[in-house]
## 1
Amino acid sequence: MLNFSQIDTSMRALAEPTRRAIVERLSRGPASVSDLAKPFDMSLAAVVQHIHVLEECGLVVSEKVGRVRTCRFEPAGLEPLAEWVRERKLAAERKLDRLEAFLAAGEQDKETGND
Amino acid sequence: MLNFSQIDTSMRALAEPTRRAIVERLSRGPASVSDLAKPFDMSLAAVVQHIHVLEECGLVVSEKVGRVRTCRFEPAGLEPLAEWVRERKLAAERKLDRLEAFLAAGEQDKETGND
DNA sequence: AAAAAACTAAAGCTGCCGCTTGACTATCTA
DNA sequence: TAGATAGTCAAGCGGCAGCTTTAGTTTTTT
């Protein structure tokens, strides 16, 4: 489908349990790459790859000082996702509104008809 | 990783552009399977498979009457996702609060020290 | 200066996900 | 009742995402 939109990349990024766990960890404060890797039963390289994905979609930023790269969570990266959810809920509500308006109009007709 | 949590299934479901498009369509009102399939350049069977995934994670419900299956969007299915986002933002804020408290305490010390 | 620590980069492997095809069932229409 | 419509089921295929391994670099420690 060749979709490179923001919502697509961040959804894909967070579909991974490991990446979600990394974000959860970072949402409680910054951490180095090896700190992030410790809880996981996988190679450091694998965790680094996950971090790259999270950086590419703006959910994580990092800075290297000396030999240590420190990663931080970027809450703004959640916005595309949050917005998509809001839009879906809103559309569903509007649809419900229209249905209710339709039913209300029907009741109205009935009442005026019976009047 | 064998993760069957609600958040995992719904994130995975919505990581797919086609499935997201289906939800977008349904959030504006119910539709039959073939209606849903029309905009996509793929077989009906493929779309049916996507619908199944969306049903399994509670984002879509459907009902078959006669030979037509009508699908509806279930906004409640978004809750796990919405909650996860809220929690992440909250954790990040709290972390920021602690930082600010720490800095404020530092300023306090400075002031009392200079006093 | 040598060894250790903290990554980084690249190549290769494997399992799963999304898709197709084909064969089938059930329902509606002419 | 014949044909069309709407969906279902299952098998199979190809690509790619996530992981490993290996070999490197840079920085810190001893």
## 2
Amino acid sequence: MATPPRARRSDAQRNRDRLLEVARTVFEEQGAQASLRDIARRAEVGLGTLYRHFPTRDALLDSLLGRHFDALAAQAADLAAAHPPREALTTWLRAFAAQAAAYQDLSAALMDTINDETSPLHASCSAMRGAGARLLRDAQDAGDVRPDVDGLELFALVNAVAWITGHSPAVAARRDHLLDLVLDGLAAPSSRR
Amino acid sequence: MATPPRARRSDAQRNRDRLLEVARTVFEEQGAQASLRDIARRAEVGLGTLYRHFPTRDALLDSLLGRHFDALAAQAADLAAAHPPREALTTWLRAFAAQAAAYQDLSAALMDTINDETSPLHASCSAMRGAGARLLRDAQDAGDVRPDVDGLELFALVNAVAWITGHSPAVAARRDHLLDLVLDGLAAPSSRR
DNA sequence: TAATAAGCGGAGCGGTGCTCCGTATGTCAA
DNA sequence: TTGACATACGGAGCACCGCTCCGCTTATTA
């Protein structure tokens, strides 16, 4: 994640903080596609001010989520050390899915960063993806997960589930179940419960 | 699907046909979120004309896809009669996924119709969903598919896969594999190959 | 306290979805 | 063939969007 550049003037720092605070609640209310103008308005700040602090929507998302993603990457290592591979993987994926469901349509933004290295989200997100891929490989080496899946596919599937739950209240209520179905399906046949 | 109201004036009919033709190619090029203004322009027709013929984007999509969805619903019955439940289900789901991938982001539109009975797509889509749910139940009764899945969840999962493949070329190349992973995961443990 | 770098804010551009209504034209009866 | 009229056309206009640009304000520092 990008280092937060401490502003040189106190009002700039104050505005930045306000924007982040407002952006968080607006994104929670309306999803990751919310109007940036609206965020600026509610932060009682000019639109230019918003764009100066956060040149792109991704930059704003990164400032809000970057440290969570970094934490997820770190957690992957912890889980790998403390739990059997299969358990580590599923626990981690659940945590990731919960994070990806923070704002509606965030999954779309995350998927798009895969192909766009210029996005600030790309860095924090790809580091996290790497961590997940490592957990996957461990579980596959242990024979717990079918070998014909790779990190990209896993990331895509979990994001797909996170995304779909944002498009229907009825489906949202079953997010955990849908995730279970997918994860269960990835289990190696020999290890299937 | 809504009955196609034969226009009373020949120019109206001509414009309607032009719009549908152009809309099909534009949606294929740019996805289901393409600019309606752009469609009107390329059809060399006023924007008002487009909106008179198709009051909403969903109405336009329905006119383009409705009969395909009706055909899918019909195909479900044929498959149920001619094939074992499991095979009927997977064959049908593949056909549906192919259709759902026709235009990028179409899956989002389809998911949204679930909660919006006023959408023209709702009718043709829910009929089709019913047909799929019936195939699912057959397969479950035969013990081929795990019993703790319902039609809504199945629809959501397949749409999720269709959607995600539209958000990354790398993922798009593996659409069939992702679908296999999900369908395989839904197999009843006892019947797993 | 005055100079100045730093930051602010919103007008403006080109785009979107969608509505509304004055105008044009296809159709059909005379 | 020629009107008269229902039908359909087309785009101006409204409110919104993302994003840029630049004249003005203000916090900071000497």
